[in-house]
Every structure is written in C-alpha cells, then in structure tokens.
Amino acid sequence: MDFCVLPSGTYRLINLKTPACLLGQEGDLAQIDLAISDGRIVAAVPPDAPVVDMAGKMVFPAFVDMHTHLDKGHIWPRAANPDGTFEGALATVGADRVANWSAEDVRARMEFALRCAWAHGTRAVRTHLDSLAPQDAISFPVFAELREEWAGRIALQGSCLVPIDMVEEGGPFDRTAAIVARSGGVLGAVTYPVPDLRRRLRVFFDHAARRGLQADFHVDETGDASVATLKVIAEVALEMGFDAPVTVGHCCSLAVQPEAEAARTLDLVAKAGLNVVSLPMCNMYLQDRTPGRTPRWRGVTLVHEMAARGINVSFASDNTRDPFYAYGDLDMIEVMREATRISHLDHSGTDWPRAFTANPARACGFDAPSLAPGAPADLVICRARSWTELFARPQADRIVLRAGRQIDRTLPDYSELDGLMT
Question: pLDDT digits over 308-330, tens only?
Fold first, then answer.
C-alpha cells in the first residue's frame, strides 16, 4: 500500500527532496515544492489549493528504461537457462522463440511487462525485438499495436535485433530494415568479431541513413579482452559521418582490456558522440560464470571513465525473467539501486541520477523527464528521505503520479501467464 493518498486536480506538495542535478544545481539533494494543476507542474496554484507536507521525502520524474527485451520477458518458467551462461541463454531463447513466439504469446508477455513498468513509475521504454525471419514480421506488428494502446502512458520505441553477420545488401536484412522503417523503429544489431565487420557496419549505417533511422547495437557482451568491436563501430560512424543517434549497450570487454587500449577506444566513442547504456544486473548475472568457480569481475563497463569524457551514459533493465536474466521487474528504482552498488556510483559524482532519467531520454529522443513548471506531473515519490534510506529498501510503497493523478500500483499476478508456460 502507498504510504499516503494525495489529492487530485490542483494542489501543492511541499518539503520534498530531489537530486540537485535534476534541477540543474550543484550538490547532492535539494529541497523542492511542486505545484500541480491540470496534470502538469505549474509555477503556482491558488492560495486555497490543498497543501501536503511531504516531510522530506524523495521525488523523481518518472523514469526512462532505454534497453529492454519485452519480447523475451517472462519465459523463464518454460525456458530456464540450463547453466546460467550466455551460451545457455542464446540456445534456450532460440529454441523457445521457434516453438512458442506466436503473436498471441508475444503480445501477452509484452503487455504483462508494460503493466509492471507502469506500476513502478516508468514513462518511456525502448525494447529490442528479436528479428530473425519470420519473427520480425510477427513481433513488430504486435509492438506497433501496443505502442498505440499505451500512448499517453508509456512511450515506446522498438529496435530490431539481428546478428551482424546477417547484415548485407540485398539479403534478409533488407526485409527487416524495411519492416523497422515502416514501424518507425530503430535499426539494431549484435556485433562480434567477424572477418568483414567493417564492411558490414558500413552496410548497416547505410541502411539506417537511407531510412532516417537511429542505430542501437549490442556490443562486446563478453569477458574476452580480444573482442573489441566497439572501437570499430566508433571508427566507422566517424568515417561515414553518420549523424543520427547511435547507442551501444553492454561494452563489457572494455573492463578487462589493457588500460591504454580501453582509453583509446573511449576517446573514439566520445569523439563519435555514441550513447552508452550499461546493463549491470544482467551482465553481473551472465559474465564470468564458470561452474565451481567464483566470478572474478562484475561484468559491467567503464562507466566512470566514460562519464569523465562527457560520454552520455545511462543504465537500464535489460532482460526480465528470461534465460539472459532470471530476475527483474522493469523497476528503474531497482536498476538505480543495483547500478549504484555494482558500479560504485556512490562516493562519485552527484549527477548519476540523470543516467536513469534525462540521459536515456536524450539518447533515444524521448521527451526529457523534468520537474520544471510546464512539465507533465509524472512523478515517483518515495518514503525515503536520503540515499541510504532509498537504497536500503525496495520502496515498494512508492507513490506514482501520472498527469498529476496517483495511479493504482497493483502489479499483475504471475498466474496470469500460467497458460503460456505449458
């Protein structure tokens, strides 16, 4: 149950706290009062409007989750990872996709996941959609329907997901790219070492440029230091003058490469203006997993070094209850809590809260979350009054406001999916 019931319509919330960086200020937490009317934050409300003293509780603009896999979500009960490895996840998802991913199956699981994100306080989501034929022609129409149905609640973007060695001119990738373009999506691929990687990336960027599409790559999701496709992506984007937004996710191998080599790559990433999204929960789950051996590293990329270079860094949920990550619930407060612990965001810069709000919105082109007058009153309010209180508990009793109204935060019951798990 939420810790209090707020008015609706026109009212004031006083004595809140929020990260100072979200107000364009220096420092840690800043005090803020919010006036709300007609679903928006306003400069002032009439003197007789209801006033609620929030006693120092923390407020955030609703979150942006820029890297998810709604089409894979919640298949774990029927498709568990046999050994917790990346290879086990690939094989298990591939088999489940062929056997089960009808339009009805994908729609039900995606809808379930969006209801979870809504209840937790997320306002925008980018999802990757497995796009090996014939799945592209199944999942993208379902996604387009859901995007329309959820308009005004959660803004949605869809990115295709194909292996880089599928990217060719005149091959199946033409068909997939056309489907993505018709749906107003994002062109995406998984990169890994192939002999002609540079040529394939040029073909990929050419497809995106001709169709006016953003690009989003899964990159170097491995602990093998010799895997360094991120460097090639940055080089090719610079060589071609590709000027649409480019996002690179994971980038795990950077963390195990020699310092000088990683630094040279990061300089190229900064020069190319690439956006980076780190997926700490999934990567810690999969990376460096060996039977009978304790993992030696956290699996995450060099976010501090990226931020120091001015690279736009974000964090996101990634997979949810599927073979790539057995847990999760599209809860960005959980992502923030775990990213802080795993990546040591504490005792660091004070602008990391932007990596869960403004940074991903900027990377994807979503409307920027804001607490300024004129912004939608889409808010997440937690009982916590400080970072240690926020991260010590899951904030299950948070309040979520959308357009100034407190929403019902009841989560869908897993039993709703039982019929799909046979």
Answer: 999 999 999 999 999 999 999 99
Question: Which residue's entry shows tokens 């498709």?
Answer: 79
Chain mean position to CA 116: 14
Establish how many alpha carbons lie within 13 A of residue 72's alpha carbon, considering only the half-sphere containing its beta carbon.
31
Angle at 68 between CA 66 and CA 73, to 5 degrees: 160
For each of the domains in the chain, give its residue range(s) and CATH number, in order of start: 11-61+370-406 (2.30.40.10), 63-364 (3.20.20.140)
CA dihedral sign of residues 71, 76, 81, 85: positive
Q: Which tokens is 28 given? A: 């840690």
Between CA 31 and CA 51 the distance in angstroms is: 16
Helices (H), 344-386: 358-364
- Which tokens is 281 given? 């929960």
239 in active site:
no
Q: Which two tokens stand for residue 205?
A: 């960027």
Nearest-angstrom CA–CA distance, 44 and 40? 11
Q: Are strands 40-42 and 29-37 parallel, antiparallel or unpaired?
A: antiparallel
Q: Which of 351, 400, 404, 335 is nearest to 65 (CA)?
A: 335
State the Cα–Cα distance between residues 216 and 220, nearest whole angstrom: 13
Catalytic residue among 149, 169, 221, 239: 221
Please report the sign of the dihedral spanned by the C-alpha atoms of residue 299, residue 304, residue 308, residue 314: positive
pLDDT digits (tens, 9 = 90+) for 181-203: 999 999 999 999 999 999 999 99
Q: DSSP labels for 75-102?
A: -TTTS--SSSSHHHHHHHHHHHHHHH--
